[in-house]
Amino acid sequence: MESERIAIERDGGVAHVMLARGDRMNAMDGAMFAAIGETFERLGSDPTVRAIVLSGEGRHFTSGIDLHYAMGQFAYGGDHGRGTESRLRHIQRLQDAFTALETARPPVIAAIQGGCIGAGVDLASACDIRLASSDAYFQIAEVDVAITADLGTLQRLTHLISQGMVRELAYTGRRMDAQEAERLGLVNRILESRESLLAAALDMARTIAAKSPLAVAGAKMSLNYSRGRTVEEGLRHVAMWNAGALVSADLGVALEARLSKGVARFEDLDL
């Protein structure tokens, strides 16, 4: 279900999710956090969705959390213990909204233009792949408003770029431009304009959507599972996966297409 905060377009197995608050730099308020979580939970379990592109309307991907919303939500004038418990649950709900991208069955490709600030970095870090326009920049800006980033940046970004660089960005709040982000490996590719950025992201999504959805889902599952674990644990996990998945019809379809130089067409996954 779309909301005033999120717009969705579908083209076959590709879903394009857009942050739809461009007049406010896609600042995230409670309605947008809820819409992000609900959208990715739904699309992430939809068997007809094979790849998802995430973008933001307007000049910027997102300016991060709406500061007016933050001030209203995290101030508490009652009992300190109850206030702490309330804030804890609130933060966890926001975390869960972004975790929905990571746990979604299909890969999520972020198309980032302009500013990707604060909670925007948390959001982008939860995606599988990040493409950026040449004017994009990234900023862990929470430190500038006396907040410790708590929606995934400090936990996920260290698996994408070096620990030392994450610490520098988190402690200083400085901007990192798209060129630096590409050199560090945070961004897969830089495109000149928003139009070429979206075209590249959608083209990549269509390429993924044409592959075996079972193989892609298995790759995402294995990559997520292996992060933070030993190589041995990751190997055993993917061995168990393939022990079951290799009996799928997808293997025969793929091999037949390769031998005949034809196009493989795979069935959707089950619910």
TrEMBL record:
Pfam annotation, one family: ECH_1
Superkingdom classification of source: Bacteria
Gene Ontology biological process terms, A to Z: fatty acid beta-oxidation
UniProt entry keywords in alphabetical sequence: Fatty acid metabolism, Isomerase, Lipid metabolism
Pathway: Lipid metabolism; fatty acid beta-oxidation
Recorded GO MF terms: isomerase activity
Similarity annotation: Belongs to the enoyl-CoA hydratase/isomerase family.
Protein name: Crotonase/enoyl-CoA hydratase family protein
